[in-house]
Write a sequence for this structure.
């Protein structure tokens, strides 16, 4: 056997190392979710969505905007939704295959602030931050796709937000780009732009390098805008995440079990909508919720219970064989400090160990998802490298056990110069780029993890921007969409 080199292993490592639910728990949650959708249903404010549900066999009350989904309808949607969805990269190097318990990491959050890398002060994020974050993701090896993670506050025309966010993402990374959308016309423009890049609508469906996030609004509501956009994307046959964000004690029961049940029922309602529009369309379940700070009534980003909830939903998604977009790595810290490190590391590891297919928000976010910090993005990349080492596990075979070598060497011998050591020394351990393992005497003032992260931020910012679009194609897109702000 030839061990791996020190290059990162491919995306999509399988994991089922943490399971907060028993098998009977999973079955009970699924059964109750189907009962809720049947007896209580969803408030659906999109006429197109109500029409799709009615056509699929739902009981629809247009006056009350209420759709009750029979168990058979939801079960059929689960069966027809793809169990394997590829979120493609444009260069084919970091395709993310969402299936079973394969794990991938990415950014997310649509934060409205960044910590300015020059001043360290919080400021509103702008279009240039979209581009810079995309450049960072392109360079950071343990982040597999770019979920557009900041809002361009400098763009005031709501209809121009979507095309600007996606263009500057696609222009600066060849990794898969996922994003929330703000208007139906904006969504259509992004799809049209992506089809231009792909070479047509069929080519984009076959190799979707963009995907989209709509929303089920807790508790159990599909609003007009998100409903219309979900139907449009399902009809186009493009990957669409239908996440939900129930919060313990406010928009969901206060118990973790009740929150997990709300997650499952609501996102299955979204999957049912996608399949009611177009059978076989690539719908992705979503799990984003958390707990409530009962002193302030705010939601909490860094709670360990949030990781437990998302791990539990991952178990249910694997049981149903539906790809899952999950959440991890978030923190309530206001600076890149000890709290940011331990909250992010704990939730990243727990949710990764559950086998959640795509964990968004897992790099760069802080302050309950309001702010992105560039140095935290770099530090989280290292945390994710450690998580991936855990997911690889301990491989046991005659070569790795090395029993014959131990017998040959005998008691009292060392293994430093052995060929076996040389073969395995690069691939067996995670080698940090930021953490300092040297002796105190050799450590300089900038040789801390924080100092090295700051240096890495300076390097990435200082590198010349490189468009990931062919020059002629880029010029054509800018001509077609003059509302795109050039940086």
């Amino acid at each position: 056997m030839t061990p791996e080199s020190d290059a990162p292993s491919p995306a999509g490592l399988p994991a089922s190392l943490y399971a907060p639910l028993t098998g009977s728990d999973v079955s009970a949650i699924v059964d109750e979710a189907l009962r809720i959708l049947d007896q209580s249903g969803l408030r659906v404010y999109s006429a197109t969505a109500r029409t799709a549900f009615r056509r699929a066999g739902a009981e629809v009350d247009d006056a009350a905007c209420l759709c009750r989904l029979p168990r058979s309808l939801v079960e059929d949607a689960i069966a027809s939704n793809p169990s394997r969805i590829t979120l493609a990269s444009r260069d084919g190097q970091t395709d993310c295959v969402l299936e079973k318990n394969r794990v991938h990491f990415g950014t997310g959050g649509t934060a409205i602030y960044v910590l300015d890398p020059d001043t360290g002060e919080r400021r509103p994020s702008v279009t240039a931050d979209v581009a810079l974050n995309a450049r960072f993701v392109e360079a950071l090896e343990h982040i597999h796709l770019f979920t557009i993670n900041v809002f361009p506050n400098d763009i005031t025309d709501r209809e121009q937000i979507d095309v600007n966010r996606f263009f500057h993402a696609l222009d600066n990374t060849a990794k898969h780009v996922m994003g929330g959308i703000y208007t139906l016309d904006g969504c259509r423009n992004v799809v049209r732009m992506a089809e231009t890049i792909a070479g047509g609508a069929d080519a984009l469906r076959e190799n979707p390098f963009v995907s989209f996030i709509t929303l089920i609004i807790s508790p159990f509501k599909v609003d007009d805008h998100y409903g219309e956009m979900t139907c449009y994307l399902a009809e186009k046959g493009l990957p669409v995440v239908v996440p939900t964000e129930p919060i313990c004690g406010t928009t969901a029961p206060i118990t973790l079990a009740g929150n997990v049940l709300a997650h499952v029922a609501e996102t299955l309602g979204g999957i049912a909508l996608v399949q009611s529009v177009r059978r076989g369309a690539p719908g992705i379940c979503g799990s984003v919720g958390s707990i409530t700070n009962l002193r302030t009534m705010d939601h909490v980003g860094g709670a360990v219970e949030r990781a437990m909830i998302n791990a539990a939903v991952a178990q249910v998604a694997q049981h149903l064989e539906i790809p899952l977009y999950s959440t991890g790595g978030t923190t309530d810290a206001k600076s890149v400090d000890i709290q940011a490190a331990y909250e992010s590391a704990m939730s990243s590891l727990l949710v990764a160990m559950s086998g959640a297919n795509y964990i968004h928000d897992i790099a760069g976010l802080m302050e309950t998802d309001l702010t992105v910090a560039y140095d935290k993005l770099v530090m989280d990349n290292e945390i994710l490298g450690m998580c991936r080492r855990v997911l690889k596990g301990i491989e046991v075979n005659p070569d790795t056990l090395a029993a014959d070598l131990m017998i040959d060497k005998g008691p009292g011998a060392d293994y430093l110069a052995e060929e076996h050591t040389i073969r395995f020394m690069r691939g067996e351990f995670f080698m940090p780029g930021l953490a300092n393992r040297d002796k105190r005497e050799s450590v300089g003032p900038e040789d801390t993890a924080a100092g090295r992260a700051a240096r890495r931020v300076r390097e990435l910012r200082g590198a010349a921007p490189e468009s990931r679009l062919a020059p002629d194609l880029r010029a054509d897109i800018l001509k077609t969409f003059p509302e795109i702000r050039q940086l």
User: Anything to note?
Assistant: The domain at 13-21+78-392 is CATH 3.20.20.480 (TIM Barrel). DSSP finds 17 helices and 21 strands in the chain. The first strand starts at residue 13 and ends at 14. Confidence is low (pLDDT under 50) at residues 1-6.
